[in-house]
Amino acid sequence: MATTATSVTDLCRAARAASRRLATLPTAEKDAVLHRIADALLDRTPEILEANARDLQAGREAGLSDALIDRLTLDEGRIAAIAAQVRDIAALPDPVGEVIDGFRLPNGLDVAKTRTPLGVVAVVYEARPNVTIDAAALCLKSGNAIVLRGSSSATQSNAVLAAIAAAEAPEGAVQLVAGGGREELAELATQDDLVDLIIPRGGEGLKKALVDVATVPMIFAASGNCHVYVDADADLDAARDIILNAKTQRPGVCNAAETLLVHRDVAGAFLPGALRALREAGVELRGDERVRAIDPEVAEVADTDWDTEFLALVLAVGVVDSVQEAIDHVNRHGSGHSEAIVTGAYAAARAFELGVDAACVYINASTRFTDGGEFGFGAEIGNSTQKLHARGPIGLRELCSFKYVVRGDGHVRG
Amino acid sequence: MATTATSVTDLCRAARAASRRLATLPTAEKDAVLHRIADALLDRTPEILEANARDLQAGREAGLSDALIDRLTLDEGRIAAIAAQVRDIAALPDPVGEVIDGFRLPNGLDVAKTRTPLGVVAVVYEARPNVTIDAAALCLKSGNAIVLRGSSSATQSNAVLAAIAAAEAPEGAVQLVAGGGREELAELATQDDLVDLIIPRGGEGLKKALVDVATVPMIFAASGNCHVYVDADADLDAARDIILNAKTQRPGVCNAAETLLVHRDVAGAFLPGALRALREAGVELRGDERVRAIDPEVAEVADTDWDTEFLALVLAVGVVDSVQEAIDHVNRHGSGHSEAIVTGAYAAARAFELGVDAACVYINASTRFTDGGEFGFGAEIGNSTQKLHARGPIGLRELCSFKYVVRGDGHVRG
Questions:
Q1: Which of A278, B62, B127, B395 has its CA at 20 to 30 Å from residue B82's CA atom?
Q2: B362 interaction partners in chain A (CB closer than 8 Å)
Q3: Are residues A206 and A233 both part of a single domain?
Q4: Number of domains making up chain A
Q5: Residue B182 confidence class, pLDDT cut points 50, 70, 90
Q6: CA distance A68 to B315
Q7: What is the CATH number of the domain that holds B40?
Q8: What ipTM score was computed for the predicted complex, to two decimals?
Q9: E strands, A13-127, where?
Q10: Which of A380, B119, B100 is nearest to A370 (CA)?
Q11: What pLDDT, in 10s, does the model give residues B1-49?
Q12: Among candidates B130, B166, B170, which has minimal Cα distance to B30?
């Protein structure tokens, strides 16, 4: 039997109670919890692998694709890597208690805007069981209780991993929703009295399913339709290196480029060499008329290609008349994730920086740097393309709220 | 006819287009817009009053309460005050372009976390037509386009006020949803492709109606069930002044106190005088058994009173055994708005500050200071009790998002 309707609420209520204790837990105690979780992952590796084998067998019987089976698979090396990641998170600075801002009011009141945990964070994820531990570690370090809801294909693996984390964490701080159905998801997403934030990690289908029912505030680690724009004044060698890196270094991730835009003045000089290099790297090219006039081997781009996150070695290529046309194209078709301009012209860089509406705007750099690790945040739970609260990498600080602490000497309002 | 289904989307689409231009509008131009709006409000006062008179007549015919009629009423003085508020907002610092954080990565990339407008903000409000202009001015100053949806009782007044703002603002930047029905509200609240934030300003009914349908991220200016806790080590004169101020200075607002908690060690010394002063100020008192043992004139408190935002001269009073019991009470019954402790003891102050989960925690000061004006934010669109994005006063900065601007020299990821 799946978890009954009542028990999702019960899990959340237990997490809420735990969150009160976690909020004031000293950093050293939180770090000790994380190290104990890492130790337990190593000690209990055989148990984890056994549970994982049961998931894998069920997955093969259910006809899961090779890609999904790979994402589901754990081995000793992967478990050791998960444990190492937990220790890395323990080593990060504690965001709780940071004073973000502080000032004295004219009446003498001292105001300190101080970072606090959010409280209870729910994470809904698909396939990869390592997320169970990564998400729990990030939430515990930031003083939050966590309610996990993984996919049904990883039920056995997630159960063991969550049990390991729960055993080492303060009582109630790590909760796992046992049922994998849409009903449990809807119930979790409507616990706005008990859950402060819900983060879906998965495809657009999961996000859509949640948007329609959620009353809990949501931040989604969203898709990225990212662009590289090569300006008239670009260093063309740097531009070629950047689009190659952005498209091919890891094509299946959200900060990979999906569209190359080139200013008409350099299209003739830039495109033949760049497209050859991209093709040699295995990239399928789809271009507009002006691109195809330069390189007839390029396939015809479809209107929908401009809006597609290929997550594969496919690239849409277009020629534009100006930096403004590039900005307009990016704002119309982009998903607000990571957008790059390559230029030597100050005015073009400034126009692009100011005009593009995205979490990360790059000047003469690859879009691939949008990442909590690269940004020095240490670890992330995803990249947000929303504009509220967290935009870009969601690290420990983004898993926090704040409170104003106001100190007076008997102050009353006149 | 009310606005048709299509046209809410059309309004939002026009606002989205305008938001692109607003995002890069220089501060001086935004301020000039605001001063032109203030001028036009004064110039067109007769027209506003005429429209308002039609709303008032319709309201009286519909049997609106005196309180609602008062909230709906404009006169020359009130219009002049609205215009003055617009000029005050023009005088505030522009939040757009502020660099919130900045650092150089080990690879030499320079990252600047820079404040940007959110884009399109929808404000849904009840009765008071002045919100039309206040909200529009705050959004324009922070570089956002605004979609307004007022109550049907203020249709005529809002139409004139919104037209005045729209005429002076960049084309499309100020939109008013004409229809006041739930259908238009639901359509507005599900424009997640076009609207970045929706702020309800009104009662719990409006909030609930929105939570259930909204797919647009929401921040609500919420209710406040605020507490004053008088600790064993409190200066009892200061404590009396603070609870009097917090309860009676303006009882109908969200940062007024609704519950007084007193440590048992000072209940006998504190309560008789404090309750007398409160009663003399017209406050109806409802206490627990220990309070009534000290002052039998106090009525019996009902369980539901602890959870009630009276917004009136009514106060629940309880005796607690410890600061921890006070903290637990506040976290169980409070709405996370504004909570105060009165104490001379460092340990109690620190426990309360760390343990209470609220937007604003006061030590030896009245809860009444939670206010954008008091905090030096200049103006606010409400006070948030949510934990994401904005908590406490929602001022110009809270109406903003940010982007990471990353500057390199041909950087690619290895």
A1: B62
A2: 406, 408
A3: no
A4: 2
A5: confident
A6: 59
A7: 3.40.605.10
A8: 0.93
A9: 99-104, 110-117, 120-125
A10: A380
A11: 344 445 899 999 999 999 999 999 999 999 999 999 999 999 999 999 9
A12: B170
Distance from the Cα of B147 to chain A's closest Cα (Å) equals 17
Q: How far apart are CA B222 and CA A43, in angstroms?
A: 48
Q: What is the CATH number of the domain that holds B288?
A: 3.40.309.10
Closest CA to B393 of B255, B235, B186: B255
Residue B282 DSSP class? T
Amino acid at A342: V
Within 10 Å of residue B317's Cβ, how many Cβ atoms?
A: 28
Q: Report the interhelical angle of A27-43 vs A130-141 (nearest 10°).
A: 160
Of the candidates A119, A357, A389, the beta carbon closest to that of B119 is on A357
Which residues in chain B touch residue A412, judged by CB atoms under 8 angstroms apart? Answer: 241-242, 244-246, 249, 365-366, 368
In a domain, B161, yes or no: yes
pLDDT for A211: 86
DSSP letters, A399-412, are: GEEEEEEEEEEEE-
Residue A299 DSSP SS3? strand
Torsion angle defined by CA atoms of residues B249, B260, B361 and B386, in that order, rounded to the nearest 10 degrees: -90
Q: Which domain holds residue A57?
A: 5-221+394-406
Question: CA-CA-CA-CA torsion for A247, A249, A254, A260, nearest 10 degrees?
Answer: -10
Amino acid at the residue B288:
D
B412 closest CB neighbour out of A23, A242, A402: A242
Closest residue in B to A239 (Cα) is: B410
